[in-house]
Amino acid sequence: QVQLVESGGGLVQDGESLTLSCTASGGTFSSYTMGWFRQEPGMTRVFVGAITWTDFKTYYTDSVEGRFTVSRDNAKNTVYLQMNSLKPEDTAVYYCAATRVEIVTDPGGYVYWGQGTQVTVSS
Question: What confidence category does residue 39 fall into, taking pLDDT thresholds of 50, 70 and 90?
């Protein structure tokens, strides 16, 4: 059983940056692809980005490509989501998740989830 805890959310202005962290415990962090998702009120949870456990390859949804960066530090059991040039439409609850599948963007492919952290971008 893997427990995931996100941190780093908050309120920022349009164009500012924010870094989210997700720390894992209870499992072999280095053996999991780690993904970031976000969810707006009344909407489904959607893929933001992920980093594989095999070769640290990263994947992003088109709307954040070039602005967001996913990275991981296996020594700290932590995955990060660096968010630059934030926009009001990035406002959502952000979740990290873990899967043993190397590449997956469907939330259903992830087994373990954090509790989420709110990111609010004001205009």
Answer: very high
